[in-house]
Design brief:
Length: 96
């Protein structure tokens, strides 16, 4: 997924007339896209945020409307229905 994002970012910069002429030549879409994002992060134009999946992060524009994002925890967010009959309880027991 990250490869697609970095490649798309480089292609977007190369194809957008407002960014022409580019101050540098983009040779490799992946490596140069990653380098551009890292420079933008160091300049304070981007910031790293947590994803709603644990242990995942992403880059976003710093100047934006910020909203609270709930962290997705499968153990807490999925409700396991309680079995209704003795037979279904037995099948539920066999699953674990």
């Amino acid at each position: 997924m990250e490869i697609l994002i970095l490649t798309f970012f480089s292609l977007y910069i190369k194809s957008t007339p407002e960014y022409q002429p580019l101050p540098v030549t983009i040779i490799d879409n992946f490596d140069d896209g990653e380098r551009i994002l890292q420079v933008m992060l160091r300049l304070g134009l981007l910031e790293r945020i947590n994803s709603n999946l644990e242990h995942h992060t992403g880059l976003v524009i710093r100047d934006r409307n910020k909203i609270e994002v709930k962290i997705f925890k499968p153990d807490d967010d999925f409700e396991i229905p309680m079995p209704q009959s003795k037979l279904s309880r037995f099948f539920q027991f066999l699953k674990f």
